[in-house]
């Protein structure tokens, strides 16, 4: 039976909960902060550099600088990075969690909802599903129009609430550490397409038209950059040829994204 989240009213109570989370091996947990939903996040170790170095070398070899992997910062640097990104996005008018309190190795942020865009897409169909997709696309464009970027706008990281509308979570890395701002904005669209294409598997043509309409609102540099990234990653559609036994969820998403990129490329060629 689920238990109510810890009710926190003061900084000493936050520190006590941080100690309890460390003891239980947790790094993120829902809590109640002075009567309102919130999340308590603890610093985690920085992941090994070698895997990001290899991925970065491949991205550069393919001429895809906007798809360079961004290594999340660990420890106090990681907590500081997330707080800074949240503050910058909030100042630009984006709907993101508010930083409520911060320690050297923890961050308390407001809750912005529990329903992810991924869940909305999964349980909708037809025009309702398209409407949800457009809401996500409009959110990303709004962030870009304000001169900002997201970093990880997968559908699972876009969260809906009736009171606040759509918002974004997960800012443990900063793409500007390895790329330009316009490249970070180009990059934002790829995880969004990757994580949503699977819900339009039987109607890729419609999704291509929606993508074309969404990107029409971007700057020419970002629009052209996204088209280039999709052209150069369409080859991942080969994943659909894998044996059925290997078609796990991530493989299916990869195959659907590749097919989407292939069809959108063909659509652009006919335009």
TrEMBL record:
Q: Which domain of life is it from?
A: Bacteria
Q: What is this protein called?
A: Serine/threonine protein kinase
Q: Which SUPFAM superfamilies match?
A: Protein kinase-like (PK-like) (SSF56112)
Q: What is the lineage of its organism?
A: Bacteria, Pseudomonadati, Pseudomonadota, Betaproteobacteria, Nitrosomonadales
